[in-house]
Write the structure tokens for this entry.
Amino acid sequence: MSAPTAGKAASLELTAPEKLKDIHQLSAFDCGDLLRDAIIRTIAAASEVGTTALVVHPLNERLVTLYEKAGVIRSPQLSPITMMLPPA
């Protein structure tokens, strides 16, 4: 047996959320802030572990563009998909 509810809770109507793809424009999602944070954290850790570059392998041209906006450069001498952020 359930206890009686008080106030507005008694009239609360619950509905299922819409599908993610219907309410979010995933193609417009910008993760620049997340990338910037990851780069800053990597640079901070680099002094502790002695890294010489941040290396990434973007999976498509859209990601290449995102990385280039953050200052990451293509490194075709390593492989066609390799990009890196050299030390400052």
In short: The chain has three helices and three strands.
